[in-house]
Every structure is written in structure tokens, then in C-alpha cells.
Design a protein that fits this description.
alpha/beta; Rossmann fold; seven-stranded mixed β-sheet; five-stranded parallel β-sheet; 51% helix
Length: 485
């Protein structure tokens, strides 16, 4: 596209930003403003410090996350908050690509035509909102160049999980990464209460209190702390929810994505999520790995296989045999799905040899994604046989997030590859914990087996009850309480 066309694109973009912000920050059905998620407050604080000139060093925020989790909404919420105090522009790299515009060309044209001075001479505060950055191959180099040229520029970049993997060393030193995951159970309860006249907020520090109880205590101490937390939550929080079990089911089945909360038609929810997956396969995955047409055509069948799999770990070799593509292609496909944020992998516990020779576990980033795939092949229901695997995914998601965001509390997440072992092994500063989950009551045999094999100091059963006696250093914790972490 020539310069005049780029100018035309930017002119239109600037003219419609107010309308765009409105469309992305309010519910189209009720016209209510979306509630802020926790990430907003952290980004809001950083941008506020920049505008007030109290922090001119930390001027790049990277927001990686799956499509549909609300990254664009966060950008527009920041726009609404600060557009009167700073010069701001929103650019989607997917949109730029559709018009044949390079991100660097768009920024240079904006600088020359709309700012009217080089960045080095701009005296105001400029906030750049760059969405879908993974669609621009050299995005990191472009943002580093902007950062280095002026202390009066703040950049917020959002895109797929690949942003967290592909950031250059130079930009990593200059940036803060703020992960945005699908909706947690705690967030679901809050977002789902919008419009009821009474927001459901948990007691302050609930998540960190549960983490500290589970990962910084022995079994006896954890049992005491969890019992106290459970009593407070039951009285002040769970009592405000008509049926916590139904609420938990609804969260896993249909509540993982903020833009779908409030939608009553589950079929409509699943159709939208399948559409998101198809767009990821078509538009995003080819950006992350060298995938041919044959490999791409196998992506949805492999996702359906992973959604239905109840046998534990899955090897690349077995997927290769079952779907008729090379092991290298399977590796690239799974890698691309991880970079897109659709799935994540958990390695088997043990030596590097064990990791190389054993199958790995793959979990969806939200049980609602898994539910949508099961629905598409007629396998979704509310039986314990279905809800159990969805709960395992929800527990895996919770532990995976803590492994990324709270490395001082959870500094390793694995699974026991031995037959009859626990679902997860969590490494903490105190040692290893074996974790098993089940939709109903859960026996302790699997936890005990893994505890013996790896010398774990504690076991956790995520199930229907709280065990105040913590026999054999095994703590039972209600599933809804664990997912509040």
C-alpha cells in the first residue's frame, strides 16, 4: 500500500476510535460496561505512572493470551481511561496485514503525518496500543526501536501466547509481561453476577491465602488454614451463590471466556468457540510453525482426540500413527497450538530421559474449550464421567497459571507417568506435592503411590470434601475451594 493509502487508513482509524472503544468495552445486549479484570488495574497503574512522569523506564507491557480472553477489551478500557490525558492510537496487526500495511510503515506515517514531529521531539505523552502483534514477524524489533527513541512513548502489545516465547532479549529487559488467561472460577462468579444488583466479591487475599496454605505449610498446618479459609468463604462468599455445584458446572461448561458470560444458549457458545478455533488454525498457527495443508487439516481431528482422551499422557509417536502424519509434523502442530494458547503441555516427573521417553500430557487452556469440542461430536453431558475430566482440566489450568505467575510458590508442574499415579506433581519451596482430583469423593491410593515414589511431603485430593484429620499427610479439599486459588 502506498503512503496516501496508509494515511487514509490511519485517518479513518483515528476517527472511529471512540466508537470502537464503546463497542469493545460494553455488553452489546445490555449496554452495561464490562467489569475490569485484575490485569486492568496493573496496566492502569503502569500507564498512570508514565503519564504522571513518575516512571519513564517501564514503558512496555506485553499481554500474551488466547483469542477471545479479552486482550482487545483491556486495550480499549485503557484507551477510555487515558484518552483525555495522552495521545493514543490503536493498531491491529491483523488489520494492517489485511490492508497490506507494515507496522513500521504505519508508525512512521503516524509520526510524520499526525504527530508532526519526530518521536525524539514529541513533548506530550504517547500511548501505542498494538493488538495481535504476533501477526507482525518483526514486532519486537519495531517496539524496541520506538522505546529507544523517546521516553515519552508507552507501548502496550497484545497477541497470542507466542509473544511470551518470541520476545527478543533486548526487549525482554525493557518490558513487563502481563499474562491474560481464560476466566478463572473466581472471575466467573464476579462477572456472572453483573446485572444481578449485587456483585459477588471474595474476601480480600483469598487466592493468595489458599496458595500459602497449600504450598507453604505441611499437611497438618495446611488442614488448619484451609479449614479456616473454608469457613470464611462459606459464610461470606459461597452463601451468596444459589448452588455452588451448579455454578461450578456452568463455569466449566460455558464460563471460560468473558465475552460469552451471560449467554444462555450453550449451543451458541460452543459454535462461537469452534469458530475461534478454526480462525486460530487458519490464521494464527501458520505464523508459528512450518505447517503444510495436510498437517493443518489434521488439527481439528487431533484437538477432538485430545478433548476425548482419558488415558493420560499422549506420545507424539502415537498421534503420528493414528493420524498419518510425520512425528515432526505432529511436534510442529502441537507447538503451534501451544503458542496460540489453545493447549499447554505437562511433562512427566523425573529425569531428562523420562521426559524424552514418556508420553506428555496436554491440557486445554480452559475446560470450556474442551467442552465445546466434546459438544461438537455429541459427547458432552453433565455426568461424572464427563465432568471429572473437565475438572482435571480446570485443576491443571489453575496449577499452570500459578507455575507461570507465582514461581516463588509453585516452581515446577509435572505428572506421574507411572500407572496408577497421581494426576499432578507440584514442586514448591518445601518439596513436592502429589495432587489428585475427582468429581465426587476420591480415594487416596493414587496420591499415596506417588508420594512414596517421589518422597512427597504432602498429598492433596481435590474432591467433594474437606478432610480435617489429614491422615497420612494427605489433605482433601473441596474442588470449588481449590479453584478459588
Amino acid at each position: 500500500m502506498d503512503r496516501d493509502d496508509t494515511i487514509g487508513f490511519l485517518t479513518t482509524q483515528i476517527a472511529i476510535m471512540s466508537q470502537l472503544s464503546e463497542s469493545y468495552t460494553q455488553n452489546p445486549r445490555t449496554k452495561e460496561k464490562y467489569l475490569y479484570r485484575p490485569i486492568f488495574y496493573r496496566v492502569n497503574k503502569a500507564v498512570g505512572n508514565f503519564i504522571n512522569s513518575t516512571d519513564l523506564q517501564n514503558r512496555v507491557i506485553i499481554i500474551p493470551g488466547l483469542r477471545g480472553v479479552g486482550k482487545t477489551t483491556v486495550l480499549w478500557q485503557i484507551y477510555e481511561k487515558f484518552s483525555k490525558n495522552a495521545t493514543m492510537i490503536y493498531l491491529s496487526c491483523h488489520h494492517l496485514n489485511n490492508y497490506g500495511i507494515d507496522l513500521m510503515d504505519a508508525l512512521r506515517t503516524y509520526e510524520n503525518k499526525f504527530l508532526g514531529v519526530p518521536l525524539e521531539l514529541f513533548n506530550g505523552k504517547l500511548v501505542l496500543l498494538i493488538d495481535e502483534a504476533h501477526a507482525q514477524k518483526n514486532w519486537a524489533a519495531i517496539i524496541k526501536d520506538v522505546y529507544d527513541r523517546s521516553k515519552n512513548v508507552f507501548v502496550i502489545i497484545s497477541g497470542s501466547v507466542a509473544l511470551a516465547f518470541n520476545t527478543t532479549t533486548d526487549l525482554a529487559r525493557r518490558s513487563v509481561t502481563e499474562w491474560l488467561f481464560p476466566v478463572s472460577f473466581m472471575e466467573y462468579n464476579l462477572l456472572n453476577s453483573q446485572g444481578t444488583g449485587s456483585f459477588i466479591y471474595p474476601p480480600k487475599n483469598t487466592a493468595s491465602d489458599i496458595q500459602n496454605a497449600l504450598f507453604f505449610s505441611d499437611a497438618k498446618g495446611a488442614a488448619v488454614h484451609i479449614d479456616n479459609i473454608s469457613k470464611v468463604l462459606t459464610a461470606q462468599y459461597f452463601s451468596k451463590i444459589p448452588s455452588i455445584t451448579i455454578n461450578l458446572e456452568n463455569y466449566m461448561l460455558s464460563g471460560g471466556f468473558p465475552f460469552l458470560i451471560g449467554e444462555k444458549d450453550n449451543a451458541a457458545i460452543y459454535e462461537k468457540l469452534i469458530d475461534i478455533l478454526n480462525r486460530i488454525i487458519k490464521e494464527d498457527m501458520p505464523l508459528f510453525s512450518p505447517l503444510g495443508k495436510l498437517t493443518l487439516s489434521k488439527t481439528m481431528p487431533i484437538l477432538l482426540f485430545l478433548a476425548s482422551n482419558r488415558s493420560g499422557g499422549v506420545s507424539i509417536a502415537s498421534i503420528s500413527r493414528n493420524f498419518g502424519i510425520s512425528e515432526a509434523s505432529v511436534f510442529n502442530l502441537l507447538n503451534a497450538l501451544e503458542k496460540a494458547g489453545v493447549i499447554f503441555s505437562i511433562k512427566p516427573y523425573g529425569s531428562a530421559k523420562n521426559m524424552a521417553n514418556s508420553a506428555w500430557k496436554y491440557y486445554f487452556s480452559s475446560p470450556t474449550l474442551q467442552a465445546s469440542l466434546l459438544w461438537s461430536i455429541g459427547k458432552l453431558n453433565r455426568s461424572s464421567e464427563t465432568m471429572g475430566p473437565l475438572l482435571e482440566t480446570a485443576v491443571a489450568d489453575t496449577l499452570y497459571r500459578k507455575n507461570i505467575l507465582s514461581s516463588h510458590k509453585v516452581n515446577g508442574l509435572f505428572f506421574d507417568y507411572r500407572k496408577g499415579g497421581a494426576d499432578f506433581i507440584v514442586k514448591t519451596p518445601l518439596g513436592s506435592i502429589a495432587v489428585e482430583c475427582g468429581w465426587g469423593e476420591k480415594e487416596t491410593s493414587q496420591v499415596k503411590k506417588t508420594m512414596r515414589e517421589i518422597s512427597a511431603y504432602m498429598g492433596i485430593n481435590v474432591c467433594n470434601s474437606v478432610d480435617r484429620e489429614n491422615m497420612d499427610n494427605i489433605l482433601s479439599i473441596k474442588k470449588e475451594l481449590f479453584l478459588m486459588m
